[in-house]
Amino acid sequence: MSATPNASSSPPESTSPAVAAPPVPVQQPTITPDQQHQFVLQYLRAKGFKNAEQALHTDYSLTQMVENNKPDVSTSAESLPGLKYIAGVDVQSALMLDPAARNDGFKELEAWVDGSLDIYRIEFSPLLFPVFVHFYLDLVQLGLKEAAVRFYEAYSPRLLPTHSATLHHLSTLLLPIHMTTDEEAARFRKEPYRLRMSKSGFALFVGWLTDGMGGTGGGVGDSFGGEKGRRGRDAVLRVVNAHLKIDVAATTSALLSQGNLEESTGLVSSLVAGASPATKGRASTSADPAAFNAAQSPLKLGKPPMDPALRDEADRLIKETMPDDGTGMDLDRPKEKQDGELPPVAPEDMPPLPPSFREVDVRREVARVADERKRIRLDPTLLQSSATADVTPGRRKAVALPSICMYTLHDVPDGNIPCATFSQDSSLLAAGFEQSYIRLWNLKGEKIRGLRSDFDVNNIREARDLRRIRDKSGSTTRKLIGHSAPVYSVAFDPLAGSAGAPHWLLSSSADATIRLWSLDTLANVVAYRGHESPVWDVQWGPLGTYFASGSRDKTARLWCTDRVAPLRVFAGHLSDVDVVRFHPNSLYLATGSSDWTARLWDVQRGACVRVFVGHQGAVTSMAFSPDGRYLASAADDLSINLWDLNSGRRIKKMTGHNAAIHSLSFSAESNVLVSGSADWTVRCWDVKSAGGNVAGLGEDVTDKNETSDLLATFPTKRTPVIDVQFTPRNMVLTAGPIQPATPSQAWPSFLP
Amino acid sequence: MNGLTVAKPNGVHAPKPPSAPQSKARPAFASGVYQSDSVKDVADSLGITSLSEPIASALASDVEYRLNQVLEEAVRYMKHGKRTTLTPADIDLALRNLNIEPLYGHSPTVPVAFRRFQPAHGEQKAFVYTVEDEEIDLERVVRERRVKVPREIGVKPHWLAVEGVQPLIPENPPPQPSHPERASSPTSTTDPLPSSLPLPLQLYHTRLLSALLSPDDAKRAAALASLAADAGLQLLVPNLVNWVGERVTRELAKGEEGDAEVLEVALGMIGSMAKNENIFLEPYLHQILPPLLSLLLVSPHPSPALRLRTSSTLSQLISLYSPKYTTLASRLLKTLLRALLEPERPLGTRAGAVRGLSALGAEGVRRGLVESRGAEALGRECEEAVAGEAGDRAEVAELVQAVLDALQRLAPQLGSQAPAPVPAPVPVPGTAEDAVVVVVDGSPLSDAEVGTLEEVLGGYVARLVGAQPAWARALLAAVGKEGRADAAEEGGRKEGEDVAME
């Protein structure tokens, strides 16, 4: 529990200029003993005096609870119990404490929004949510529990479809003490809630606030103009002044699309403020994510540079081993001709890497060229122009959609696994289990053999000796045991690419460790400790050596395999870091968080360089496009967003899944995106098409939530798709555990 | 946030219905799940009796808040475990992460059963739920050793999609019925074609289907002929096969009201496709056979006469593909035998099964009618049907005809009493010779012969066959000849045959 000092006193933020405000009453005196306690607690915790801390904590929370709940004792719903706490505030403000005013105020606001013209309603309706939240928090803060609950019951149903997670969380706050410790409430209290309105819309709103007119048809406001109505509006006005920041846009209201609303509405300022020390000055002046992104320097998104010696060696080998197949393909790397727009990264920008290349690097580069040549070209535009499908003059065959191979896991206990992944050469499958172990499968049917434990290191001189100490027996599957809590992520090292089997495996777990496993000895080699809480995700850098992790402790960290302490800590997210992904050139790291945002970090500087705001739920999965321009992210709002990295803008939003999206992957040409979901489907998306909701004429629009860029949906029988992965040759591998036909009874039986 | 409020294993009050009459002390509006009564009960159990209502209610609110905190934490673990149900393990991890001592004694594998009882001091309708502790007899556990080893986790790959098309294999779910309102209307018959098909083929497809469904016989015949001879139709085969399957299922589902013409067309399409040398039909056999078998075996049938044609088409397919697809015949035989011998099947199904068996050739008939005693059973059923209702006459006649036709497969009937049926008996080497031998002997059957015949075919069928002694002898010879090799103990029958041979 973090020691948030007295979150209740509302900060007198700068407000929209046009509205005159009555003075904001200070509702609670600052509690200095409170802070003292917190400091002592922190000290004890830091020193590890657990028992003392516990005892003090127990004692303290008891006293404080009694203290804070005093108002409740003397409360009947209609009295004004908070009065004694706010001595010296004028009568009008005292009246503001009347819960009835808030009820009326919200009812009238609702009626006014509903009664407004259609073109304005879309920009007025976002007003309801923050006003509702602040009214509710006000009531809780005043100790009017019953009134707060009744207020919630009465008005939340309308807002629940869009804000269910936040509302549910806030509904659990019932006592004033909860407000002081709860972060979500503190954010609402401290930060301005940003809204956008057109000029005319704002004028109407101000008009309604001042005299209860404007925007409504007759007959809606019975109490308008009356004393009751005025008090209600005053309550709204107070929230608007204290907590809302309305950006008045010069544009016409029609331009405020749904997507715009998602990106610019809400508590967005804290997402950028203080995100990086380097830009603090600028960020504080413009607390808008779009402005923040615009203020950052442009990104270097090109391909990573290649060691010239390595390139020569690889070229030589390619010429030797692979005869020119007469298709006119250049012997050199074919990718070079494509990136005309993105200049490659200068070698000095790259993170430090091993100085000389090894054999495995050469083999990887050779395999990359081989893959490039044998790749099945995907081209979703073929779906539209069907007649020309088989007459495309191309040297390689192009198909519209990829082939998908599904690896179904049978007989999984409880029917679910937290994670699974394939090695790049498609030879190994690893899955992490909630029973704390990792299981490997060799998909080629070869035996997985480790080293015997009874050998003398002194006798090992050459490769032959190593072979001798291998286990004689083995099977195609193997357990790796070492973690002490559910394993949430596994990752194979990318060093060998598709040229050979990987040698290392990383795993992260709820026991707050990341473990490195050697696939030669099948043993745990290193446990990286540093995170304080469960590590949700771990991911190798594209060149091996480095890896990144994201944790419940709100940080992402960069590690190097040969050090046990992290090299960088990326702090800035307001909630768990659920996903981490490396940019293909390893200069940037993307993190997805439960604070509904994704961020892009400069790996070298450790600074946040982009914020992607727009999701309406925790980010569950992400993927970079291989060409380095785009980031796709999936979230709990069941949508997939495609972001342009350089501008930080959302390109489009893709919807169609009906349950959590577990995994995303781009094809090698970055034109097809594949997603795997808990709704038992794999879906293919067209990256390049415009998307959007297009319902054809005469089509049934009622249950059509699929955007037009959904290319295909492939249902499985009963398998939630945990992992989807494009192979370098554009085939898709997917994995998931099949669910038992009759789900085990989730709810315990009640005996009579 | 500590163990004080959360770790309360003693019992939890279920939220009372709001209409509970004794809620006078509490406010009318019951908020939350955790009630102040629960707090009072807990306080009672700790020896605190004088807990005022406001304090209890405040405590209840706080407990609820803390519970929600734990739950929100636990939900994170659930989400990252890629689950949709919360487990005790999630709560454990959440408590651990919140630095609270976990609750012991709950495990995700042991389902928790709650017992409900009324507290002695409590109000009338209040119940307390507790976890039941099962008493375990350790000795018995040791003695019985019933350790159930869970099955090893396995991985099995399959194609979820091949170049964007989901193959119809058992691992994949059956395709979604495309728009039910479209399927039911007879006018719009075109199934969605994959748009990757070349345009000419798409056109051909629509024309072909419209011609096939037109009432004009000449058009239909032309369409079938085109399907039987034209080249380059391979790409359409999956669609056509699908179409046939769907149509047959739909028409047969209607029972006797089904459109016999559509079925006829479907049958014709299969025949034509099989005839077409440019169409490679083998991969689609598993899709073609089910509708064919349905055509044979379904009863009531829209047009029983169609069984005969189905049988000939089936025999055509078998003769084409059984050399390459060696298990084909045995698989069919299994299905047909089941239809023939399982009790409680309608006579129409039996007749279809017999027709199917005769499509399989002499071997099929021998296995079905003779070795499995099919003929005997059928004879009994026919007798019962005749004795029972008169409405079954047509079916009985059909069945009898089917049986006789099938027996022709064993030994061709040489007399002219019964008109030769459509499935022209393929001359089986061996039987034909025998028939030639036996044809000379046209004298009435001896008693021994009749006995043998009844033993082989059952009374009813034996009587029918016995009307033509020459044929009967030929049949016995065919059966006996083939039976002699493996069943030497059937001496009596052999004797009778030997007599006949002489």
TrEMBL record, chain A:
The keyword Repeat applies. Pfam families: TFIID_NTD2 (PF04494), WD40 (PF00400). Residues 344-355 have a biased composition (Pro residues). It is found in: Nucleus. The keyword Transcription applies. One of its GO terms (molecular function) is RNA polymerase II general transcription initiation factor activity. WD repeats lie at residues 480-527, 528-559, 570-611, 612-653, 654-689. The lineage of its organism: Eukaryota, Fungi, Dikarya, Basidiomycota, Agaricomycotina. Residues 1-19 have a biased composition (Low complexity). Keywords: Nucleus, Repeat, Transcription, Transcription regulation, WD repeat. Residues 330-340 have a biased composition (Basic and acidic residues). Its main location: nucleus. Residues 98-211 form the TFIID subunit TAF5 NTD2 domain. InterPro entries: TFIID_NTD2 (IPR007582), TFIID_NTD2_sf (IPR037264), WD40/YVTN_repeat-like_dom_sf (IPR015943), WD40_PAC1 (IPR020472), WD40_repeat_CS (IPR019775), WD40_repeat_dom_sf (IPR036322), WD40_rpt (IPR001680). One of its GO terms (biological process) is transcription initiation at RNA polymerase II promoter. GO terms for cellular component: transcription factor TFIID complex. This is TFIID and SAGA subunit. Residues 1-30, 320-356 are annotated as: Disordered.
From TrEMBL, chain B:
Pfam families: TAF (PF02969), TAF6_C (PF07571). Its main location: nucleus. It is found in: Nucleus. Keywords: Nucleus, Transcription, Transcription regulation. The keyword Transcription applies. Residues 184-196 have a biased composition (Low complexity). CDD domains: HFD_TAF6 (cd22931), TAF6C (cd08050). The keyword Nucleus applies. GO terms for biological process: RNA polymerase II preinitiation complex assembly. Residues 1-28, 166-196, 483-502 are annotated as: Disordered. It comes from the Eukaryota. GO terms for molecular function: protein heterodimerization activity; RNA polymerase II general transcription initiation factor activity; transcription coactivator activity. GO terms for cellular component: SAGA complex; SLIK (SAGA-like) complex; transcription factor TFIID complex. InterPro entries: ARM-type_fold (IPR016024), Histone-fold (IPR009072), TAF6 (IPR037796), TAF6_C (IPR011442), TAF6_C_sf (IPR046344), TAF_TATA-bd_Histone-like_dom (IPR004823). Residues 32-96 form the TATA box binding protein associated factor (TAF) histone-like fold domain. Belongs to the TAF6 family. This is TAF-domain-containing protein. It comes from Calocera cornea HHB12733.
